[in-house]
Design goal:
The structure is a homodimer of 421-residue chains. With 421 residues, chain A is α/β, with parallel strands linked by helices. Chain A contains 13 helices and 16 strands.
Chain lengths: 421, 421
């Protein structure tokens, strides 16, 4: 079992030692560990499913909603998908050692800026066993060690999966402690993890706002928050209205529980009378609960649209509910988005290049779309192979957190005796 | 006067509005503001020097040490140097709008990753009026607004300088509030500044550990700490010992009060008997107080070397004092550096490529030098034009914080109606 009785500090110290070795591991060795992980996942699928069944059968798990049980549950196909995901990461280019800059300084020093691993990455995550494997694969390939703090609901599943990765690391001649799963524990262990300065180089909390608030209060290590999103679709006066209908519905309905789904639709006043009735009908038909501002509601006809409150514009529903407003211009749309958005993903539908440029320049967000759904903000969609989450921070990583976001750089300068005068 | 009676929050809100305009300002307009700043600094040198004389004559300033008074004092030559520094920044390439990546996604989306300003950068700094101009120039050129919180010792000098930059901005058709100097104030105002979430995109505290600790306790905005450094010089068994003498002395003595000066000298056991007496003599002659470990002290002959305590290996003296130890190998040197260093600047002196590679790969620091002094970690030396400070963080910026470190990026995706399936 990967779960041991060592303390959080001991686990992090062991991870730090492993990180030093992994930082200089060859691409071949890291890929061998990933290949072995994929193979062992397939070979020991039965063992994994058994552990998962025990997690699901635990009386503790009776608390879970149907949706949460579904996220916790593994099937042969899901284990197969994990193995396939690991092979995708193995096929990605190794980011470590990349020469980002190279120049000769006035002093004659030869200066190179080289990409290097961060060191120890800690991830705190919800009851989704596949996250164990996704995150471990990304950190191994990027030369980092990982400390995983999963949910108690998934303890047995995570234990089985972490054991497999640790065996795979050892098989490839790499330190097993590069993947360390913390034993359960509550808020105290979380606080301990968030204060391992000098040992934890980056902490990524996934999951709810409660977890994030708890970490924000105590953390002294660098934290990158995998963000929720209050995303908007703005339908401009010169939009293709058929396209706008498809995009608005897709952004809201296709997967409402994720961070890049839309929460507010902004309709330009110039086309509101024509467009509002059709898009509201589409949305209502798709089962979306609608609230609107005072300019929108009279355009709704027989469609039921509640009165939006001030809170609705800031809400991240993460469910089949949408706020709709009428705005007078691109500037007004930008102002609304910057006032209420969370800086995640924002879309404009327009045939006007001028409006598109104004919107993409004016909106302060990680990703801005022209004539496409907000739902595309995703490491896989962006060709980054996989992601640990999405960042709405502006420092270091913005948007999908992939392998390169798990690296830093180091300046290496070579001279022949240079001293400063 | 730039100093007004508005609250910190009002000042930050005004800076945010200015930042939106500066983000899309042309390179020409930003350079015009910088040229006007340089011109006004020259034209109004007398006014600046008068304000500075008043700061120095204030009874408050009687508290200052000679060194601190010198940092506060302006002269015609120093004002001229500020103007020259602004022109250097004007000549640097505009980082905003740089296309960092561009590719077509599987979905057909055209994805560009574009460099954009952070927004509002706040800098808290010591009583050095030139920092007002250096920081304002870097933020203007990188399309950011800046909120400056200087020292009360420099209040009149900073006021005169900020007034000039604001006039220059207005002359170039840019918003004066892009450079905002906060009125004095103490820890309460600092705490208010550090908690302007949504308004301040980055806070950079310069200066002492007390300031950093105070900010660490309260900050909710992103912070980048301009770091102090516990830097090492390691003299390897195969070093050119004449070069090693020069580098060790330069790294300690040339400017001991700055973060990239050396605090510990590590001497390989293989050459310690030959090298220690000569380098210790050089250092003693340069006025350096020496402390050493038990293996080093017997090699010191008649040179006075005190017994190093456990604290000495972690000390950032920032004065003419040096700790010296004998180590057995490159591995031992790396282990010492990683255990006691602050991740700033580390040097090895060696003729061995193998040792150099091992040291540069193994040491976890922003900058690693082979056969050069640690003193080169600096924005000017690195060809970055100027710097706001040095970062020992691993996220976002590591090493000199120049213009590019004051930017983030945004993904802009253009489609023709893409939705996710």
């Amino acid at each position: 079992m990967a779960v041991t009785t060592t303390t959080v500090a001991e686990s992090c110290a062991a991870a730090k030692r492993a990180a030093r070795l992994l930082a200089s591991a060859s691409t071949e060795a890291k890929n061998a560990a990933l290949e072995a992980t994929a193979r062992l996942l397939e070979e020991r699928s039965a063992e994994i499913l058994e552990a998962n069944a025990a997690d699901l059968a635990d009386e503790h798990a009776a608390d879970l909603t149907v949706a949460l049980r579904d996220r916790l549950a593994l099937t042969p196909a899901r284990v197969e998908a994990m193995a396939a995901g690991v092979r995708v990461v193995a096929a990605l280019e190794d980011p470590v050692g990349e020469e980002l800059e190279h120049r000769t300084l006035a002093s004659g020093l030869d200066l190179r800026k080289l990409r290097v691993p961060l060191g120890v990455v800690a991830v705190v995550y919800e009851a989704r066993p596949n996250v164990t494997i996704d995150c471990a694969a990304l950190t191994i390939k990027s030369g980092n060690a990982i400390v995983l703090k999963g949910s108690s609901y998934a303890e047995r599943s995570n234990g089985a999966l972490a054991t497999i990765v640790r065996e795979a690391l050892a098989e490839a001649g790499l330190p097993a402690d590069a993947v360390t799963l913390l034993a359960g524990g509550g808020r105290d262990e979380l606080a301990e993890l968030a204060t391992q300065e000098g040992l934890v180089d980056l902490l990524i909390p996934r999951g709810g706002e409660g977890l994030k608030a708890a970490i924000k209060e105590v953390a002294t290590v660098p934290v990158m928050y995998a963000a929720a999103g209050n995303c908007h679709v703005y339908v401009h006066a010169e939009a293709d209205l058929e396209m706008a209908r498809r995009i608005a519905v897709n952004a809201k309905v296709q997967r409402p529980g994720v961070c890049n789904s839309a929460e507010t639709l902004l309709i330009d006043a110039a086309i509101a009378e024509r467009f509002a009735p059709v898009v509201l009908a589409d949305l209502a038909e798709a089962g979306v609960e609608l609230v609107g501002d005072e300019r929108l509601r009279p355009l709704a006809g027989t469609i039921d649209v509640g009165a939006a409150t001030a809170e609705d514009w800031d809400a991240e529903y993460l469910e089949l509910k949408l706020a709709v407003a009428v705005v007078d211009s691109v500037e007004a749309a930008i102002e609304h988005v910057n006032a209420h958005g969370t800086g995640h993903s924002e879309a404009i539908v327009t045939d006007s290049e001028v409006a598109a440029d104004e919107f993409t320049a004016g909106v302060d967000a990680a990703a801005v779309y022209v004539n496409a759904s907000t739902r595309f903000t995703d490491g896989f969609e962006y060709g980054m192979g996989a992601e640990i989450g999405n960042s709405t921070q502006k420092l270091h990583a913005r948007g999908p957190i992939g392998m390169r976001e798990l690296t830093t750089f180091k300046y290496v300068a070579r001279g022949d005796g240079q001293v400063r005068g």
